[in-house]
Design goal:
Elements: H1 9-18, H2 20-33, H3 38-46, H4 65-78, H5 80-96, H6 101-107, E1 115-117, E2 123-128, E3 131-141, E4 149-156, E5 164-171, E6 176-178, E7 192-202, E8 206-208, H7 209-213, H8 220-223, H9 232-258, H10 276-309, H11 315-341, H12 353-365, H13 372-383
Parallel strand pairs: 1-4, 2-4
Antiparallel strand pairs: 2-3, 3-7, 4-5, 5-8, 6-7
Length: 393
Amino acid sequence: MTKIGFPSRQHLRLKAAEIVPLLRKHAPWAEENRRLHDEVIEAMADAGVFRLRKPKRHNGYEVDAATMVDVLSELARGDGSAAWVATVSTIPGWMACMFPDEVQDEVFADPDSRVCGTLSPTGTAAPVAGGVVVNGRWQFISGAHHSQWQQIIAIHIAPDGEPYPVIALVPMSDLHVIDDWHTSGLRGTGSVSTAAKDVFVPQERVLPLMAAVNGEPVSPHTARSKVYRVPLLPVAAASSSGCVVGLGRAAMEAFVERLPGRKITYTDYDSQRDAPLTHLQVAEATMKLDEAGFHVGRLATAVDVKGAEDAPWEIEERALARADLGQAVRLVRESVDILASASGGSSIYTDVPIQRIARDVNAIHQHALMHPNTNAELYGRVLCGLAPNSQYI
């Protein structure tokens, strides 16, 4: 523990590493049941995973981005779905800290409260006396089965003003959960859809989306913390990067574990480890993981340093944050593809972890905010002197 009573970066990373065997044990169950096992949620809670971005005044840790990357990377070594749910929880949990203190007091009243959510504005918020009435449906709500609150994005529509996106915090009990999570990757995340029908949200639990996009917390407590005075998208990018590099490490570990004594069928190689092709494949996959680590490290460092200095973010820096994340995703996917391709026909069996890891990485690769091409185009556009064509920067 640190001198002020909060877990150190090393302590949190080790606690995450300790539950990796449990995550691996329950990963097949999660795939089959399309949600995380309760024991996995409990283990992550006991390890402090859901307190990473929670305010210290609510018994959270307010960790920096580098610590978050380390912890989430360790979890991904055990199970990509568990790591992804933990990853996603850090983002709407961070966004909840933009709200007034009394709202945070309500949301974080339970020490183990969890917030799920999305950044897609697929609902409407109509103003009424004292707040708004929300209607809509939101997809990809990772962790919905084990959360108490959801952060939703809706379009505020008033008869006498221009529409604009807002964030609203809604108890899960006010939402309808739609069990539609039938996917090829990240199956264990339980990323179902949720829907709201004429749900009233009091005004204090509604904020303009741009307050979070620009890192402008309403809470005076939050505004004093270096963790919360950073724009949303660099924060979200750094939060997501740990899971990605951890899955790359998981693929390498899974491949190396099966290597001793494994033959290459229809060749004279009694051991795959003796084949020069294998040497080239492992070296290339490892170098790609190293390169991904560079981009993730640069991203986390930028978030931490600029947050500590309370320095403004230039548009190019914001675009680079997304570009670093996209490049890390590209490199990890390429690395895992090499290892999966080298794993042979027997790797298609569901009890061989690398097939699940490859599917999870492919699912992350398709994420709208993580896709390498989307992020590279945005960065290149800014580098060419054009304005970004997205508010998500």
